[in-house]
TrEMBL record:
<dbReference type="InterPro" id="IPR036390">
    <property type="entry name" value="WH_DNA-bd_sf"/>
</dbReference>
<dbReference type="InterPro" id="IPR036388">
    <property type="entry name" value="WH-like_DNA-bd_sf"/>
</dbReference>
<keyword id="KW-0805">Transcription regulation</keyword>
<protein>
    <submittedName>
        <fullName>Helix-turn-helix domain-containing protein</fullName>
    </submittedName>
</protein>
<keyword id="KW-0238">DNA-binding</keyword>
<dbReference type="InterPro" id="IPR029016">
    <property type="entry name" value="GAF-like_dom_sf"/>
</dbReference>
<keyword id="KW-0804">Transcription</keyword>
<dbReference type="Pfam" id="PF01614">
    <property type="entry name" value="IclR_C"/>
</dbReference>
<feature type="domain" description="HTH iclR-type">
    <location>
        <begin position="12"/>
        <end position="73"/>
    </location>
</feature>
<dbReference type="InterPro" id="IPR050707">
    <property type="entry name" value="HTH_MetabolicPath_Reg"/>
</dbReference>
<feature type="domain" description="IclR-ED">
    <location>
        <begin position="74"/>
        <end position="262"/>
    </location>
</feature>
<dbReference type="InterPro" id="IPR005471">
    <property type="entry name" value="Tscrpt_reg_IclR_N"/>
</dbReference>
<dbReference type="InterPro" id="IPR014757">
    <property type="entry name" value="Tscrpt_reg_IclR_C"/>
</dbReference>
<dbReference type="Pfam" id="PF09339">
    <property type="entry name" value="HTH_IclR"/>
</dbReference>
Amino acid sequence: MRDPLAEPSDLIRSVSRALRVLESVGRAPRGLTVKQIARRCELTVATTYHLVRTLAYEGYVIRREDGTYIVGLEIADRYRELVSAFRGPPAVGEALRRAALDSGYTHYLGRFVGGRIAVTASAEGARSPFVDDMSPGFDEGGHATALGKALLATLTPDQRARYLRDYGMRQFTPATLTTPEALEADLAAGERRGMQLEMGQFRQGLACASVLVTADRDIERRLVLACALPAAEMLTSARVVRAKLTAAARNVAEALSAGESATA
């Protein structure tokens, strides 16, 4: 949701409208006609037609034979570029894949992006339940995922309170923590444990653990590593998970440092 009070004075409205058109088309997998797009974006049909023609020319939407528009392949190209930029040096991706292969659990990297907690890379593990939401770019549920908790734990209490006010504490499952007080107690327990943890708070039957990879004064450079596994396995394997996750975090940190040194 865009904040109208934060609208820049030099906003280029044609660009803003084009992005609204693109978002509307992206939310409609069956496609939309120009009239449908105009209605959803609250634009005139003439304006929408010009915007859609431009987006189609650039490859960001595709016109089908029935006259509807769907997202174009240029979107996939931009997403691949986003994933590559998020992941960092190739060695980081390799360390993440190795952790997933060795443990059998899906592993994730996360950091603050534009002030929001986001998944920035992932590697699938055969033993973990598939979670389609947790793909690179996912930026919701910071209070409900171990990845998000590990990043929230790096903030001051005032910074955490502000983050929760800005982005809320949506209830994903009956076990989701929905008050700042409950979250503060949970984060403190995670600090004592040496690993942030959640069980069934984001998805029922799923558990997730996370540790810090790199700390930095700049919050956007803080990086965490998380893994997901069936909740029943976490109940019996928490210490093993923590040991393996901590070792994997060291490997990721070393790969990140080596990659940054090579490009310096």
